[in-house]
């Protein structure tokens, strides 16, 4: 079997071209689409953190919403208390979430399957509500996270949403480029070995627990970054912005993308953003009742999720690859 | 002193409802090795059936058994149609470990949106059939109301009945055997698939009872996005995991422990730390005993 393997340089150029294309895109489509684009970029980062964790290191997390919250609060605190520049806020978000992830990962490495799912689920339910206990976290209203106006050098017509989109897309592109390099390195191979045959991996000299903790830490860092992006697009952080359903949505996105292929991540991200809109226009076209209109998005997402799990369990990208190989 | 006693009562009542939910998680886990996140949706759906009965006939006493029966039917149908398909299709590759979790999450969403379609997304309410005002003891008011007493009695009866079925009947033996060693049980003439469906049905009934009791115990509000039911799912699951996921006794103990700890935190420390306490408790239990309080085997791989 010989597969086409692009070199590192051409991969990098690919990301650069994608970036240029996104800049071009942001100048042609309207405001709403630009804003949705920023949300898609946020989901790309968030879903890739789940793909890294589940598809590569074989751990389950239903609590990534909580790690997003850690990132969001971290960024907002840095911004509000120290007036840190945006990039520093993002870096702080990554570090803070990664720190929590390392703590959680150290416990998670001892757990498997349903036990891990239960622990992370409890975290998703519990962590955001801590904000109500401590005053500096702002309670139910949360904190404001204002990244400021776009720099004047970009021109007067440059809108806030476009600025969000640029930041989010650049962040997503950089982290995806870094992540795909990481997954093709020694670490990526180690994780895959641990996932497929953990006992064999241990015999081959891999420190299984350490590799799992590392995967959890990096995944949490990415989730924190996504949390900072999410807080940026909605300009606030509050417990209500990170409900249990966010964690579930991320897991959904990861499955629709295909948990073992990083390349599919955009499919899941676009789906999560597009479904409400598709459902809305569909409901209007068929003239559905109020109850149907409200519940159609949920129905479509869940239906799609179930169909994916049942019929293309490894995701669309993997499915196409397998078909080609036959 | 009196406050401690009252907190204890609140904890036990809450814990007993989590216990029903935990039991249904355990039954499903034992029969199909699936953690059923749709359990909350199934409980919600059967509670809505109960609501419909109350709406039409006006009797909570009729609604409770009907909710349980409809819960059993819904669960059995889901197992027959859906889970068998799932186990056939996604049992290999990286997805295998999370496919059941994800699929039941999908099912949860599906059930919720269907409930929203048929009954609307606004709150509907179930009135508590018994008084929620506590008994008085001298000048003090106990945290034990007729409704809470009723909940404790119903849960105790159900738990005793289930334990009896599991430990003393052939059916219970078949359930335990097919969870422990499906292949050998099949050779011994047990209809493993049918037994699985039965396990799901009992779990569905327990979930239905949990939903009806929880709604009547709380403010009586019922909606597809009900927070109460998300919490019921989370706390039920946490209880089951604390108990070891494999044992009914463990589920009940775990649920009572969780209920008590949460009640004491709520009374003496503050409401906003309740949820994180559940997480910390789970973490502590799992660090000391990675497979739950009640675990037969020393350790378990994969």
UniProtKB/TrEMBL annotation, chain A:
GO CC terms, sorted: plasma membrane
Residue intervals passing through the bilayer: 12-29, 35-53, 84-106, 113-131, 163-183, 213-234, 246-275, 296-316
Membrane-protein topology: Multi-pass membrane protein
UniProt keyword list: Cell membrane, Membrane, Transmembrane, Transmembrane helix
Example of a GO MF term: branched-chain amino acid transmembrane transporter activity
UniProt subcellular location: Cell membrane
PANTHER family recorded: HIGH-AFFINITY BRANCHED-CHAIN AMINO ACID TRANSPORT SYSTEM PERMEASE, HIGH-AFFINITY BRANCHED-CHAIN AMINO ACID TRANSPORT SYSTEM PERMEASE PROTEIN LIVM
Protein name (database record): Unannotated protein
Organism: freshwater metagenome
Lineage of source species: unclassified sequences, metagenomes, ecological metagenomes
Automatic annotation (TrEMBL), chain B:
One Pfam entry name: BPD_transp_2
InterPro entries named in the record: ABC_transp_permease, BCAA_transport_permease
Keywords: Amino-acid transport, Cell membrane, Membrane, Transmembrane, Transmembrane helix, Transport
Protein's membrane topology: Multi-pass membrane protein
Subcellular localization, as worded in the UniProt entry: Cell membrane
Positions of transmembrane segments: 6-27, 60-82, 94-119, 149-166, 229-249, 255-288
Predominant location: membrane
GO molecular function: transmembrane transporter activity
GO BP of this protein: amino acid transport
CDD domains: TM_PBP1_LivH_like
Similarity section: Belongs to the binding-protein-dependent transport system permease family. LivHM subfamily.
Protein known as: Unannotated protein
Species per Swiss-Prot/TrEMBL record: freshwater metagenome
